[in-house]
Design a protein that fits this description.
Radius of gyration: 24 Å
Number of domains: 2
Strand order of the largest sheet: 1-2-7-8-9-10-11
CATH architecture of the largest domain: 4-Layer Sandwich
Helix content: 25-40%
Number of strands: 21
CATH superfamily of the largest domain: Ribonuclease Z/Hydroxyacylglutathione hydrolase-like
Shape: elongated
């Protein structure tokens, strides 16, 4: 794909990974992503970020289509994760720049990753400004969004924010601007990305958004390192991130389960029916059919999570253990949880799931529910009672 001018003398020189299916442990709904890199043509020609090592020659040819790679004066590494720095040693060798800029924490990461002996490395502190000639670049430290080394590069002359992994999405498309896509779909993809990557750092996101507002940064374009560039709706993605990070909840429950002989599935469906009858939006998701990241995408704005698993080897089913481990690491806040399952002779799964939910900070308004063997009408009525009780707790949670 050819280089694309996104502002006067500023070019997208990234690559598209059309066939990627799994990104950082979560499944991509539409397969593929972009690795965005940006080349600024000024008195000091500057490259912002690189791409994975396997795409190094594509990046090389993108740059060569505009300038001789040896004309690069500066390289800025906003983030040292390997999908943005894997090609850095190759590009450093080909370009031999005057300076390689990174954050203070980035210097540590860079040295640990690549062990450079003679790179012209300069670590820049938060608020540092450098001149490219006609333009300046201001560096904004964004530590733990989502690595310790992360930073933004802001070019005030162009009102352009190069935002590293923030505000991104995983979309593989030759149309690289937000206004070339349906905005609602783009925001959904950004929410899915946020929930599976950025969610644990929500408090830091809110502080960063406050900093941007207080600093009065003028933004008419946000250029992330993944997905579409926000040239028409930067205000919409900023507002969306505030909503995502605030973890504003809706009267919605996600019921996630695994089942062996369908008994637990029957219990889950009974709870779902009761929730629906009480006006709660419901999403029922089998872990045999849905990846754990897809469940988290649905759970991003849900007030409640109901987990169902039969007892297997004195604990929950492996797919449920996988999901709960993944979910707990993403640190969702202020949620309601419940656990249930069928069993034959021991019945430990509901209690085991409840302990994980409790450790993750969930409110558990109902005791774990376990039913032996195949539930009949009376047992399913108990499940519906659980659903109705959860519905009231959800309504109270959302109203608070």
């Amino acid at each position: 794909m050819p280089a694309i001018e996104i502002k006067k003398d500023i070019y997208w020189v990234g690559v598209i990974d059309w066939n990627l299916k799994n990104f950082h442990g979560y499944a991509l709904a539409h397969q593929g992503t972009t690795y965005n890199a940006y080349l600024v043509l000024d008195n000091k020609v500057t490259l912002f970020d690189t791409v994975p090592e396997k795409f190094k020659w594509e990046l090389f040819h993108q740059i060569q289509s505009l300038i001789d790679i040896g004309d690069i004066d500066y390289i800025v590494a906003n983030h040292l994760e390997m999908d943005h720095s894997g090609a850095l040693p190759f590009i450093m060798d080909k370009a031999n720049p005057e300076k390689l800029f990174c954050s203070v924490m980035g210097e540590k990461s860079l040295k640990a990753h690549f062990h450079p002996s003679d790179w012209p490395l300069e670590a820049v502190k938060d608020g540092r400004e450098i001149s490219l000639g006609k333009r300046t670049v201001n560096f904004i430290e964004t530590r733990m969004l989502h690595w310790p080394d992360s930073m933004f590069s802001y070019i005030p002359n162009d009102k352009l924010l190069i935002s590293s992994d923030a505000f991104g999405q995983n979309i593989a498309n030759s149309n690289i601007f937000d206004d070339q896509h349906d905005l609602d779909s783009l925001i959904r993809e950004a929410r899915h990305y946020f929930t599976n990557i950025i969610l644990p750092y929500s408090p830091l996101v809110l502080k960063l958004l406050d900093r941007v507002q207080e600093a009065g940064l003028e933004l008419d374009m946000i250029a992330p390192d993944h997905g579409m560039i926000w040239r028409s709706h930067p205000d919409k993605i900023l507002a969306a991130y505030k909503e995502f990070a605030s973890q504003k909840l809706r009267p919605k429950a996600v019921l996630v389960y695994d089942t062996m002989w369908s008994s637990t599935e029957k219990m889950i469906r009974a709870v779902a029916d009761a929730l629906i009858s009480e006006g709660i939006e419901v999403r029922v998701m089998s872990l045999k059919s849905h990846h754990h990241s897809d469940v988290m995408g649905e759970f991003s704005d849900a007030a409640a999570l109901v987990c169902g698993s039969p007892t297997h080897n004195n604990s929950m089913m492996p797919l449920m253990a996988d999901f709960l481990t993944y979910m707990k690491g993403l640190k969702p806040k202020n949620r309601i949880g419940a656990a249930l399952g069928s069993y034959g002779w021991s019945g430990e799964a509901p209690s085991a799931m409840s302990r994980i939910l409790e450790d993750a900070g969930f409110d558990l308004p109902q005791k774990p529910l376990r039913l032996q063997y195949v539930p009949g009408h009376e047992q399913l009525a108990v499940c519906k009672e659980l659903g109705r009780a959860l519905a009231q707790a959800i309504k109270a949670k959302v109203a608070s």
